[in-house]
Amino acid sequence: MTSSSNSHQSDLNRSEPNRPDSDRRATRLAALTATLVALPITVLVAVLAIAHVTPDKSAAPDDDGSATPTPHATAPVPMTAHELDERAEVICRALLARLPLTIRELSQRPVTAGHEQNA
To answer: Which of 59, 93, 97, 114 gets the most CB atoms within 10 Å of its CB?
Structure first.
């Protein structure tokens, strides 16, 4: 044997103490048992977590158009009219003119004051 192989062998002996084969077998058996118990439990927890997070398909509304309409508020929205200078008033009117009349099924609601500036 060369000196480098002796050095390598002595490193191995230092990293693993001289233990009987029965101790090594017991350690390996304990590690194997822990692995065999931990893996199925981990898989079970993962499956349960995924099942809990995914939405329930039976609770989802049907998209066939047969859903009943829901009531929407149509009363005017109580607001106060703020004093605006001429430029701000023009900008507010231009913005309101560009807004759509409906968004999804919701239509615009009137306001109690400042119809030209309150969106």
So the answer is: 114
**For tokens 């044997």, what's the residue?**
1
> In terms of domains, do 82 and 42 share one?
no
| pLDDT 10s digits, 46-100 | 999 999 888 877 655 555 555 666 777 777 778 787 788 889 888 888 888 888 8
Structural domain that includes position 31: 3-53
Q: Please give the Cα distance from 114 to 81 (Å, whole number).
A: 4
- 13 vs 4: CA distance, rounded Å: 14
Tell me how far apart the alpha carbons of residues 117 and 76 are, in angstroms, rounded to a whole number: 15
* The overall pTM is greater than 0.70: no
| DSSP 3-state of 102 | strand
Contact 106/77 with Cβ under 8 angstroms? Answer: no
Q: How far apart are the C-alpha atoms of 99 and 111, rounded to whole Å?
A: 15
